[in-house]
Structure formats: C-alpha cells, structure tokens
Write a structure and sequence with these properties.
Helix content of chain B: over 70%
Keywords (chain A): Cell membrane, Membrane, Transmembrane, Transmembrane helix, Transport
Radius of gyration of chain A: 22 Å
Membrane topology (chain A): Multi-pass membrane protein
Number of strands of chain A: 0
Family (chain A): Belongs to the binding-protein-dependent transport system permease family.
Largest interface: A-B, 48 and 56 residues
Oligomer: heterodimer
Number of helices of chain A: 12
Largest sheet of chain B: none
Number of helices of chain B: 14
Structural class of chain A: mainly alpha
Number of domains of chain A: 1
Transmembrane segments (chain A): 24-47, 88-112, 132-157, 200-217, 255-275
Structural class of chain B: mainly alpha
CATH topology of chain A: MetI-like fold
Shape of chain A: elongated
Strand content of chain A: under 5%
Strand content of chain B: under 5%
Distance between the termini of chain B: 6 Å
Helix content of chain A: 55-70%
Number of strands of chain B: 0
Largest sheet of chain A: none
Distance between the termini of chain A: 38 Å
Shape of chain B: globular
Subcellular location (chain A): Cell membrane
Order of helices and strands of chain B: HHHHHHHHHHHHHH
Radius of gyration of chain B: 24 Å
Chain lengths: 287, 313
C-alpha cells in the first residue's frame, strides 16, 4: 500500500518555512492578539459592554475610557473586544460550513463524471450572485439572527470552496497513484478521503483563511445595514452603524471598531497569502 | 469557432436557468407564509389570502415555478408590494446612480491599480513593490462603508468639498448629481483597486520575462515602449477580465455604500425592500444582478476570442 499512498509535504519543513516569512508571522501575531482579546474579553474588559453611564456619554478616549464612550456612556474598548467574539465566531462557523459542504460538493463533482456537469452549473450559478446581495436576500427570507447570518454566508462561500476542490480533484483523479489505488481495488470512499482529500489540504487551508476574512467583512456589512444579529448585541458592524449618527462629535465610536475589522481581516489575508505562497511554488514570488 | 460560441451560449443559458431556480427557491424558503410576513401582524386573513392569490402563492409550487418562468421570459419581474408598481420600472428608475457609481468606482480603481501594478511588477522586490502590495492588502481589508464614513467626515463635513449625502434632489443637474458620487465612488474604488492591482502585477510579471520582451529590448527599444507596447498589451487580457468581474461584483458593494451616502440607487432600494419584506423587488434585483454577472462573463469569453487567436480552436 505504501507505493500508492499520496505524497505529502513534510510538515516540519512547512512549519519552519512558514515561520521564516515575515508577513505570515506579523499576520499570525495580529491574529493571536485579536483572538486573545476577544476570547479573554470578560477578563480584560474594564467595564461590562452593556454598562450604561449617562454622565459619561460621548466621552473622548482617556485613561479611564481608552477608546472613549458611546451615546449611552458605554465603554467603546470593552464593546470592541466583546464584539470580536461574535465576528470570530461568525468567521469560524462560516469556514466550517463552507468546508463541510464545499469540500463534499467539490469532491463528488470532481470524482464522479456524471455528477460533474449539474454540480458545476450550480456552482457557477451560485457564484453569479454578489455576496452581500445574496446574503441580504437570504436574511430577508429567513429572518435576521446569528444562525441566519452564518447559514447565509456559509451558503455564499460554499461554492467558492467547492470550485477549487472540484478543479484540484479533476487533476488528482487522473494521477498515477490514484489509478494504482483503483487497480488495487481500494474502495472509492477511501481513495477520495485518503488519496484525494489529503492532497487538497493546502488549497482548502488557503481558501478557508480568505473565506474567514471575507465572512468577517460581510458580517460587518450586514450588521451595519441592520440585517445581522440584534442591534443590542455589540458587533463591529452595529457599533459603526451607531457611531454614524455621531461621527461629527464622537468619531472614536466609528474609528475603533473599523480598525478592529481592518486588523482582523488584514491579518487573515497576510496568513492566507503566506500559506498560498508556500504551498504553491508557482505563485511563490508572483502574487 | 462558431461551435465554441454556441457551447458557451448554451452554458450561459444553463447557468441562467439555475440562477432563476435558485432565486425562486430563496423566496420560498421563508419560514411561514410569505404573504403574511410581508403584510405584518396586523393584516386580516382576507388581506393575506388576497395577497397570496395576487402573488400566485395559492398555486402548487410547480405551477408557481412555471408562472414565474413564463413571466420572466416576457420580461415581467412581478410587481412591488409596497411601491405598487412593476419591479422592472422601479429598478430602472433607481439604475442611474448605481450605474454611475459602479462606472466611476471602476475608473478610480483602474487609475490607481493599473499604473501601480505595472510599476510594482517592473520594480519587482523593490521598496515600491513591497509598499504597494502591502497597501493593496490593506485596501482589501477596509470595509467600504467605514471608509465612506471617514471620507464624509473629512472631505464633506470638515473641508466642505463634497456633499454629505443624497443625489441632489429631484430636478438636480447632471453636475450636481455627479458631485454627489465623488466620495461614494472613491470609497468603493479604493477598496476594489486591491484585486485589480494584484492581477495587473501578476499578469505583468508573467510577460515581462517572455522572449518577445527580451527581443524588443535587444532591438534597442526604449523601456517605456517595451513595457507599455509589448508587455502590458499582452498582460491586458487577465486585467480586463478582473475589471469586468469586479464591475459586476461592485453592485454588491454599492448596496452598502449607497446606504452610507443616502444615494437613491438599486442598492438602497434593495435594502428598503428587505426591511419591508418586499420579496418581488429582492427577487428582481437578485435576478438582474446575477444575469449581469453571467452576461459579463460571457462577453469576456467572447473578448478573449477576438483578441487571443489561441482561443479560436
């Protein structure tokens, strides 16, 4: 069996090459800080994110309120780090959703010729819808809630992953080691999981990182439009939407949640770019 | 060649068929009765029944699908529940700001991305290249609505150079209307420039080391001519592709940007339709935008056929 097992990249060499890349390390560092702040928010936040203080409303950043306060006197720093939890949760859940359905669809389409054309057409058709527009249509149909946002964004990004998995599967399917496995009578499901899927880890990882970033941006957009989670729940999008009314007098309400989105999305893109460059030698220096 | 065109045309029609089916399904997956949801909790049973009959929701699903498809073939996108007018004319009325917003955003994105992408590839690995690729990544990470708010605060509120929001009101002249589009187009253009820049750079890198570029140089041709006439001309096709697809996707960005700037475009109409659960409008907008995307994709393929003889097999 050893003769037909799929070639894999040496994990140790991959990690050592990864850590030598400056962009990846900076990206990872920002990501770890953002994630740590979000996860440890109950321990770090100086105030409760929903604590009202009428006397302290619209206060600029200071020693007591690092990012200032909002129109209800709530601490913008505490709300910003609490909001990170929801953004990260949405991003991770959307990636998990897209990975489960996208990988399955892509594998089946790429491996079974008869199913390829109908699945490929569905993927093409789904890709024709711009993400936010399809998301708001789905939210309109299902009603705004956290689960709806995750499902809607998951549905949007599933075909993007499926397309990449399908394209790679079409190539891998024809490789000699898959043919050899077939000739040896290895069951189809085992070929798909052991020989094909294992070689798809890199493109899935790269695309998953980008989907994480885009899902966070899209969630912020939906929340900004009032079509995401309940407006009382602090998210970066709802915070910017609330800050919009006070942009002339309290621009910190808009500024800090925006910077939080940018840092998170940027860090994910840096990591994703680094992964792609390392895993695809063709692109290593070009993109 | 005609076989290729026919194949692509059939492929496009198949994709459009699936698009129509998906749009039909999206509106029908709403939990409960869409008519009751649209009319709200105060509606009487008679009102709900009347709306169900008007929308054809009292028919079996397959009949509804047939009617929906038949109407589409006649160019009928249905009627808006709240505007009491055909969806197509409601969308057409709002098309101007969205069209100009998309057009200007693409022009701004191209003006930033193409020269920077070319120079970045030409000076590969230099400080300029590193700075521009980092800035492109940063631009792709900025939510367009947040950038829009910052631009409003700085250029409209503080400096008073541009209007804060709106489209100049009814009867406003073209100049006034266009001045309302500068900031929204700038915010969308900057954000969209990232992808075009990356493609321009990658595409230029592909061709800069090709033999014909070396030959042009060895003939003693000036660097500007070598880069623009020989390299860029050949690198243009992928760049045009990404510009075309970005234009189609910009409509998505326009939904949020139009809301920030209070522009009365298609995006704004869709957002208010979602808040009012005006399903026919949402359905119509989705169909038109997806059809545009599919059509642009098809046209790009045809453009390839015209400019690249290798495709004509």
């Amino acid at each position: 069996m050893a003769a037909v097992s799929a070639p894999t990249v040496s994990e140790a060499s991959f990690v050592s090459r990864l850590v030598t890349r400056k962009t990846v390390m900076v990206g990872l560092l920002i990501l770890v800080v953002v994630a740590a702040l979000a996860i440890l928010a109950p321990l770090i936040a100086p105030y409760s994110p929903s604590r009202l203080s009428v006397v302290n409303r619209l206060k600029p950043p200071s020693g007591s309120y690092w990012f200032g306060t909002d129109e209800f006197g709530r601490d913008v720093f505490s709300r910003t780090i609490y909001a990170g939890r929801l953004s990260l949760l949405v991003g991770a859940s959307v990636v998990a959703f897209a990975a489960i359905f996208g990988v399955t669809l892509g594998l089946v389409a790429g491996f079974f010729r008869r199913l390829d054309t109908p699945i490929a057409r569905i993927i093409d058709a789904m890709m024709a819808f711009p993400d936010i527009l399809l998301a708001i249509a789905l939210v309109a149909a299902l009603g705004p809630s956290l689960v709806t946002v995750i499902v809607a964004l998951g549905i949007i990004y599933t075909p993007r992953l499926a397309r990449i998995v399908r394209a790679s599967t079409l190539v891998i399917r024809e490789l000699p080691y898959v043919e050899a496995a077939r000739a040896l009578g290895v069951p189809t499901w085992r070929i798909m999981s052991r020989h094909v899927l294992r070689n798809l880890v890199s493109p899935i990882l790269v695309q998953g990182t980008f989907i994480f970033a885009y899902a966070m941006l899209a969630e912020a957009g939906l929340s900004f439009l009032g079509l995401g989670v309940s407006p009382e729940v602090p998210t970066w999008g709802t915070m910017i939407a609330a800050g919009r009314q006070y942009i002339g007098q309290a621009d910190w309400m808009t500024l800090f949640p925006g910077i939080a989105i940018i840092l998170s999305v940027l860090s994910l893109q840096m990591v994703g770019d680094g992964f792609r460059d390392l895993l695809d030698p063709r692109l290593r220096k070009d993109l | 060649m005609s076989r290729y065109i026919l194949q692509r045309l059939l492929g496009m029609l198949a994709v459009m068929f699936v698009v129509v089916t998906i749009v039909f399904i999206i509106v029908r997956i709403a939990p409960g009765d869409p008519a009751a949801v649209m009319l709200g909790p105060d509606a009487t049973a008679q009102d709900v029944a009347a709306l169900r009959a008007r929308l054809g929701l009292d028919q079996p699903l397959i009949v509804q699908y047939g009617i929906f498809f038949g109407q589409l073939l006649q160019g009928d996108l249905g009627e808006s529940i709240f505007l009491n007018r055909p969806v197509l004319s409601a969308l057409a009325d709002r098309a101007e700001p969205t069209f100009f917003l998309t057009l200007f955003s693409i022009i701004i994105a191209g003006l930033i991305a193409i020269p920077v992408g070319i120079l970045s590839a030409y000076w590969r690995g230099s400080l300029f290249d590193q700075a521009s690729t980092t800035l492109a990544m940063l631009a792709a990470s900025i939510p367009s609505f947040w950038l829009g708010l910052l631009l409003i605060q700085f250029f409209a509120v503080r400096l008073g150079l541009f209007p804060v929001s709106g489209y100049g009101g009814p009867g406003a002249g073209l100049g006034t209307r266009l001045s309302h589009l500068v900031l929204p187009a700038l915010s969308l253009g900057i954000v969209s420039s990232a992808l075009i820049l990356r493609f321009t750079r990658a595409s230029m890198l592909d061709v800069l080391n090709d033999d014909y570029v070396r030959t042009a140089r060895s003939k003693g041709m000036g660097e500007f001519q070598v880069v623009m006439k020989h390299a860029f001309k050949n690198a243009l096709i992928p760049v045009l592709t990404v510009i075309g697809l970005t234009a189609a996707l910009l409509v998505s960005g326009a939904v949020v940007t139009e809301t920030v700037f209070g522009l009365p475009g298609v995006g704004n109409l869709v957002v208010s339709a979602v808040l009012r659960r005006d399903y026919p409008v949402i359905q119509g907008a989705l169909l038109i935008v997806a059809a545009l995307y599919v059509l642009i994709n098809f046209l790009i393929d045809m453009l390839y056929l015209l400019v690249d003889p290798r495709v004509r097999y």
